[in-house]
């Protein structure tokens, strides 16, 4: 039984989910900047891994508390 958090997504599904071009997903996957794995010649992505990646990206782009205050 697949739930939303353990489902496997295709490049197109990840691109739609992230609202980016499919080429961007391929580039990030090949560069190992996006968590994914290959099945034969096609890339697949676990939704839970993508969600964790999104959280990590959001956290790394947040300014440090008190940053910019002199």
Automatic annotation (TrEMBL):
- Which residues does the UniProt record annotate as the domain Helix-turn-helix? 8-57
Range of residues in the leader sequence: none
The answer to whether UniProt assigns keyword rRNA processing to this entry is no
Species whose genome carries this gene = Aquabacterium soli
Q: Which InterPro entries match?
A: DNA-bd_dom_put_sf (IPR009061), HTH_17 (IPR041657), SinI_DNA-bd (IPR010093), WH-like_DNA-bd_sf (IPR036388)
Keywords on record = DNA-binding
| Name of the protein described by the UniProt record | DNA-binding protein
Entry-linked PANTHER family: BLL2305 PROTEIN
Q: Any idea which GO molecular function terms this record carries?
A: DNA binding
């Amino acid at each position: 039984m697949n739930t939303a958090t353990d489902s496997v997504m295709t490049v197109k599904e990840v691109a739609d989910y992230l609202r980016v071009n499919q080429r961007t997903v391929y580039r990030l996957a090949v560069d190992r900047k996006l968590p994914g794995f290959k099945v034969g010649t096609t890339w697949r992505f676990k939704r839970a891994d993508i969600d964790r990646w999104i959280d990590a990206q959001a956290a790394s782009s947040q300014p440090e508390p008190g940053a910019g205050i002199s």
